[in-house]
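Hi R.,

Here's the chain you asked about this morning:
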Amino acid sequence: MVINTNLSAQNAASLLMQSSANLSQSLQRLSSGSKITSPADDSAGLAVSMKLNAQMARIDGATNNVNDAVSFAQTQDGYVQQVNSALSRMSELSVLAQDVTKTTSDRTLYQQEFHALGNYINNVATKDFNGVSLFDGNTLNVTTDSEGNTFGMVGINLSGATYATATADDITSLSGAQTALTDVKAAISQLASDRANIGSNEESLSYYSNQLTALKNNLSAANSQITDVDVAQESTNYAKQNILVQTGTAMLAQANSLPQSVLKLLS
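And the predicted structure, written out as tokens:
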């Protein structure tokens, strides 16, 4: 029996320190909701989680790009619908102007409306979306994933020769009305093809948007497995460490009192 070195107290103090550290860590996990409160908890898991979070941020960016592209295509379609109505009326005017009972003055009145509708179509061809031309015919490459891959939106050109020819026609004469009808029908056919391309763009972008949403959900679930604390499990661990701290404190007090028994040998 010795006085200067109390091994029991030293061991009890060491175990109490470990239990206190574990209790503090458990408390941090429960209060933060994360089981990685410092790199030392799970360095590899933290590294993976950081990469997953960065990828999810890029997915958010790609999702915004796709949604903006969908809005772009929807705006195109809104204008194209009106252009279709204008061309339909122009084709009707071309037929009306071919009425043999109509005079040149009558056809001149038809031409005024025909010309106004043509100007409307030419004006639509100059419209833009946030400064980007809607109908210049250029293909727009939309970022569709976190790695920067793109989808090419087929461009629509309302300034093309087919449209320009139709809007420039003159129906003040019978022959001119016949030519205009042929040109407007060609423009309507071209517009139908262009609108089909717009629909195809919208459909493809919708698939990309759904794909990005599903991917982000899956990555979020994977990240949750790495970083999110299991509250039920951690609560049990917290209770365990709390008991160990209390018992460790009591045992350390007992170990510190052992040297006092030496006094009995000296009495």
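DSSP finds seven helices and four strands in the chain.

Let me know if you need anything else.
M.
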